[in-house]
Amino acid sequence: MQSITIGQIGEILLYVASFIGAMEVMIIRLKKTFSKLVKEETKPLIHEMELVEKEVSKLKVDFDTKVVNLELRLDKGDLRDMRAEIMRMLSIVDRNGALAEHERMHLFDLKDKYNKAGGDSYVDDYFDRLRKEGKL
């Protein structure tokens, strides 16, 4: 039976430590090399992504502007429709002198919405005149 000496154990540990150290150095160098390679290869992609991001940002601003303009046009259309409905109902009241209770409530609600949306004074004047005459 052979006996292993402390010196031999030390040599084995030295070889193992050297092997581990060499592997660690190789891994670190490979990692740095790979990292540089990936950075170099992805530079054009990153640049292209930045250009796309700028273009998307411009499109988003343009889209948001168009949505706001569309909302404004819809609001103006709603305002026109509300005004026409109010004027129709007020002319019925002016001619006939009466509305059904649910129509009357609808008229008051619609006039409130119209005023909050920026309605004009013509409707208010007509409404107030009919009120003073006791028709509303």
Write the layout of secondary structure elements.
Elements: H1 6-96, H2 101-116, H3 121-132
Q: What's the number of extended β-strand segments? A: 0
Residue share in β-strands: under 5%
Unreliable stretches? none
Strand-pairing-aware structural class: mainly alpha
What's the order of the H and E elements?
HHH
Q: What number of structural domains do the residues give?
A: 1
N-C termini distance: 121 Å
Largest sheet: none
Total helical elements: 3
Rg from Cα: 41 Å
Task: Give the overall form.
Answer: rod-shaped
Percent in helix: over 70%
* Rounded average pLDDT: 87
Could you describe the 3D structure shown?
The chain has 136 residues and is mainly alpha-helical. The protein has one domain. It contains three helices and no strands. Helix 1 packs across helix 2 (101-116). The longest helix has 91 residues, at 6-96. The termini are far apart. The mean pLDDT is 87.
